[in-house]
Amino acid sequence: MTVKVLFVCLGNICRSPTAEGVFRQRVDENGLADDIEIESAGTSGYHAGEFPDTRAISAAHRRGYDISSITSRQVSMSDYEEFDYILAMDRSNLSYLIDSAPNHHESKIQLFLEFANGFREKEVPDPYYGGDKGFDHVIDLIESAADGLLNHLLEKREA
Ligand code: 4NP
What we know:
The chain is of the alpha/beta class. Helix content is about 40%, strand content about 15%. It has a single domain, classed as Response regulator (Rossmann fold, 3-Layer(aba) Sandwich). It is built from five helices and four strands; from the N terminus they run βαβααβαβα. It binds 4-nitrophenyl phosphate. 4-nitrophenyl phosphate binds next to loops.
């Protein structure tokens, strides 16, 4: 059975495409590309159709991920039906998703960093108005949560 995972931030040009790229690499490396489908989206449509922010592309590239061909799109109502896991980067994204979701789909929505280990933070901070260091920290957090999410899905599959 295919599991579908959607990563969500505000613009879908910094954090959620990074999460998509990092998690896709983990999934591919583990031979799970046919079992886990991955997309990302923004709560806003401000950047719809755009490629990721060049700073996000560079930060990802420095760590061995290629996110350069991902294009931004806004979350749509059909996403709540289609995806099994809808993972918000921060609490503002989380509130938007919970407020917009049909009631019976709320349980699919949670903070992505619930799956991270070794960090106190529960939110991936918005790096848009900061410097390159912010983008590197975003990847630190996302890598940890991606590992945790993959382990969670593998454990569920064995159960
Ligand atoms: P993201 O970052 O939500 O991680 O993609 C942002 C991108 C754009 C804006 C804010 C955050 N913006 O205000 O345009």
